Amino acid sequence: MPSVPSTSDKWIVSNPPRRAVEEDTFSLQKDLPIPELKDGELLLQSLFFSNDPAQRTWMQAGLKVERAYGPVVRKGDVMASGSLGKVIKSRSSDFKEGTLVTSWGGGWSEYAIVPASEVVRVPEIPGKAPELALGCLGMTGMTAWGGLFEVGKIHKDQVVVISGAAGATGSVAIQIAKNIVGCKRVIGIAGGPEKCAWVKKLGADECVDYKSPTFRKDLIAATPDFVDLYFDNVGGEILNLMFKRMARYSKIIACGAISGYNDPTTMNLNNYFEVTSMRITIQGFIVFDFAKKYKEFSAKLAQAVIEGKISTEDSSTIVEAPFRDVPKVWHTLYTGGNQGKLLTKIVPAKL
Among its keywords, does the record have Oxidoreductase (predicted)? Predict the structure, then answer.
């Protein structure tokens, strides 16, 4: 077991953004002392960080706690993030040194002290990488599962559209809708022909390229019988177009709105009257709503992976980077640089 460090580097939010995240949004704090462990605590070495669009909403300047989407990150706070880490020191009988766990308690820290009660042991599935615990077997997969089953009440007779279909949550949602539920028609929306080809490989009947100059026409052609259930990950113009493709008494699952996180003025919804005329139900949710069902969801997702109904092939974009480049990797979420789950693998961290 390597020697236990006495200091840790951390990325803090130094200038909470109102619009786009800038270079001065984060600052690197170096060589901060690591306190002594208390009973029931673990010292984790961060191996992987989860990069999620929702993180942008957590640090919004002026954010009110009662209106927050998730953790509220204030000026001076360590940037919140999911992580996969290795226990390098333990004051808990439940976790030995060397155990791999996932946590939301440490944020962007090289080393973090977290309560043992707040970590989850990484499941061991033969032939599968442990970092799937941050993707299809973690919050990403549970977001897709909870959104479709608990909120959307998905069933096989539906026409389903999923935006952000090549992203972390969307790609899992595609596979649940087609490979597990067996919906009669599943359409993905993604950016670029390569991503669309991958979405169809996952099981989608069709994938519409929102970067194509013929996107509007293609979306209409892909949904001739209209749409019963729309899983929205992006908001903005695509949501506005989807209002006109929804069937009467259909439902929209509002999972995310990445198109407007950096600039809310992009949220032009001039087709909103369709909600009234077509009697559309819109329901938002956050994965934390299903906390009491995480164990159930996780077991079902793991079984789907074992049965091959959810593919783990090419399901993550893993960027190896030194700790100093953590924010730089996170930024690529907004440039379309990832297919599936975007993970930062800290070098020279080794499993």
Answer: yes
Q: Which of 25, 168, 38 is nearest to 108 (CA)?
A: 25
Task: Return the structure tokens found at 3.
Answer: 């020697």
The pLDDT value given to residue 300:
95
φ, ψ of residue 84 in degrees (nearest 5): -115, 125
User: Does 104 score more than 70 pLDDT?
Assistant: yes
DSSP 155: -
Domains and CATH numbers, the chain: 7-135+315-346 (3.90.180.10), 139-288 (3.40.50.720)
Contacts of 287 (CB under 8 A, 6+ apart): 139, 142, 143, 146
3-state secondary structure of 269: coil
Does the structure show a pLDDT above 70 at 349?
no
